[in-house]
Amino acid sequence: MAGEWVDRGRDVTSGLTPMPSGSEELLTVGHVLEGYTYEDIIDDPKYFKDLFLKHKLLCFRELNLTGDQNPEVVRAMGYHVFGHHKEDHRNTIAVEYRVNDPSELLVPWHVENLHQQYPPEVAGWNMELFTCSKRHGRTGFVNLAECTSRLPIETVDRLRDFEFIVARQAEDGEEAKKQVESGSREVCIRNKRALGPDGRLMHGDDSDHYYAHVRKAIETHPLTNEPVFRYECDWIYLDNFIKGPEAGDNWLESQSGQSSTGTCFTYSSESERLEVDRLAQGIYLNPDNQFWWEWTQGDFLLADLFVMAHSVTGGFQSDERRLDVTFNTVEVHDRPVSGEKGNWVAAGFADEEERKRIRKGMLSS
User: Is 3.60.130.10 the CATH number for 31-364?
Assistant: First the structure.
């Protein structure tokens, strides 16, 4: 249901060993918590943070937080709130080639905001409005840390040196492609759309730019020290199937390398990129790797976005499903008002003793 495997074996013989199949253990599981209150979390945040670090996804049934309580919960658990907005997916629903159906992916699989130097590492998702049918507007998750742990060591080692950038949106593709192909490590893109006061993308200023930061396909979790495969190939590979003529052209062009209408651009050879794309596609689209949450109004999900790729199925309108969202990080980062470039200074939040306690607990669990 969540997506069909598209066989790209015809295109390239992969040199990357895929994840072993046949494991009976579920790789992605949300830890469901029922009967708890806001006061329970505030009174004992350490208990819930330890649960969160172990499971990476806490699913509180009908916690019924207010908008102000969402950031208070994540702050109590020691994270730093840098974004707070409403999400009703109205912009995605308005895209002509997206299919807004409960059996389709309205939002394809992705890792959050990889174009940023410091993407959100934790999300608090509070479903403050949900009036559509029960199985509509579900959120899917893939635990990339668990999937990475199943990869052969030689595959992980190769991915550590695989570099790429992600542009904010597809219309930035031509600029990004030219700069990456020139070998530039400072990919600066005109900000055609900027974040408005409500957190939605709006038209940008011609004089405003953002920087798409160079990333490696394997990154280390800031608290648990786990290696995580944090790579996002173009969305067309992570969709249910090709939709619309432009998407079809994008698919064909991308078979021979980088697409000027995509969002991911690599510093590798075409053949190596196709190998990594194929590996990512196999991880994201394998139903055995996925966990799906059916929402009820009042549910609150705390998601470790460093490891949780996610997607959303359709079947709702923007006035039927609305999330109150906080984006959070482990450490404080100085974020400029406009663009993604500036003096980004990390101020340590989790001290070394806290990190040691967390890692010791992970090893003993």
Answer: yes
